[in-house]
Amino acid sequence: MSAGARERTGTMGTSRITALCCQKALYAGLKPEEVSRAWIEGVQIVETPCSGKVDPIYLLKAFEKGADAVVVLACDQRLCATIAGAKRIHKRVERTQALLAEAGIEPERLVLRIVRRPALRSLEALFARIKETVAALGPSPAR
Amino acid sequence: MIVGERKPFEEIQKLLADSAKVLLVGCGTCVKVCFTGGDKEVAVLASQLRLAAAKAKKKKVLDELTVERQCEIEFVDEVAKRLPGHDVILSMACGAGVQMLASRFPEVPVLPAVNTTFLGVLERQGLFVENCQGCGACVLGTFGGICPVSRCAKSLFNGPCGGSQGGKCEIGGDVPCAWHQIIERLKKLGRLGNLKAPVAPKDWRSARHGGPRKLVREDNIL
How many residue contacts between A and B have a Cβ separation below 8 Å? Predict the structure, then answer.
């Protein structure tokens, strides 16, 4: 995976969210000078070359490392630059939700968001609702 | 390949209820191909078990190792280096691999995480189907490459039966009638003559019915 993890320090006290974001979903169409590091308070953003790179084990590991919620940001399937990457992620997220449920973790803690590129400008709004869901669920029972 | 499915999670948790330090051992051959027991599946199961243990506030150590094949002793020997300190092995191999581990490491319980189901092929992406039962007396040459032993519900050698309707087997579930397939295939090959004379009833002694089988290759033994 590309080493693009960004995290704002000192503000992870309440809910912890890990977001695995397709780089193209975040930045496609932006000029180089418009691209800034993606960060949202309380969210650890991990950039991936495509959402198709995201395997169930990455999502489970994020929960093992203490995430209260895990978000995957992916492009619309019709826009996926690797053709089938964004198609794969839907079924992988579904499967991982089932694996979480087996382990006694609420599957709604894993969220897939299909975004219009570039998502960078709307990250605050994107994560606002997710943060509400996480607040309602409380900290992960595996924490 | 040998195909298997991971056991229900609850059943695996019950198997490991009294174990504090578990070594999960995967297999890099058949069960990896059917996405059941390879390195990725070992990682996923270990992660699930850790999450479940954390939720239950239980201490459970889960270590992971995948060997090339659990059905060959030289690969199984690799487990010896990692085993000390673990009180149980959870194998994600087929039944043959589980038993190989158990006989190599008789001092440690070896538990199965997989239900071994059948010998088969990957028919298309994501679909594994049974097509061989290891009967020990292959007749695929007579039947156009379609096995009546494994693919006919009744294992008929002189089919089809009266239950064959529209190319489907009477057991339902959209199962194709193997005999319909055999006849169509032999027609295409111009070998319908194979079915002219009745085929003798199968001698099942070469199959599992005759007891556990073995193969000895003296030319390979030093």
Answer: 44
Are B50 and A64 a contacting pair at CB < 8 A? yes
Q: Residues B116, B4: contact at Cβ < 8 Å?
A: yes
List of residues 6+ apart from B175 with CB closer than 8 A: B153, B168, B169
Q: d(Cα B6, Cα A99) in Å, to the nearest integer? A: 12
User: Tokens representing B86?
Assistant: 């673990």
Chain B, 24 to 63: residues with Cβ < 8 Å from chain A are 40, 43-44, 47-52, 54-56
What are the domain boundaries of chain B?
A: 2-118, 133-206
Domain, as residue range, for A132:
17-136
Q: What is the CA radius of gyration of chain B?
A: 22
Are A35 and A120 in contact, with CB atoms under 8 Å apart?
yes
Nearest to B142 by CA among B185, B176, B180: B185
Q: For the whole model, what pTM was predicted?
A: 0.92
d(CA B87, CA B107): 9
> For residue A37, what are its two tokens?
């590091």
Give every CB contact of residue A57 below 8 A, 6+ residues apart in sequence: B40, B43, B44, B47
The fold for domain B2-118 equals Rossmann fold (3.40.50)
Match 């794969």 to its residue by tokens.
A88
Give this complex's ipTM.
0.90
pLDDT digits (tens, 9 = 90+) for B148-173: 999 999 999 999 999 999 999 999 98
Q: How far apart are CA B152 and CA B160, in angstroms?
A: 9
Q: In this structure, what token pair is assigned to residue A34?
A: 């418009």
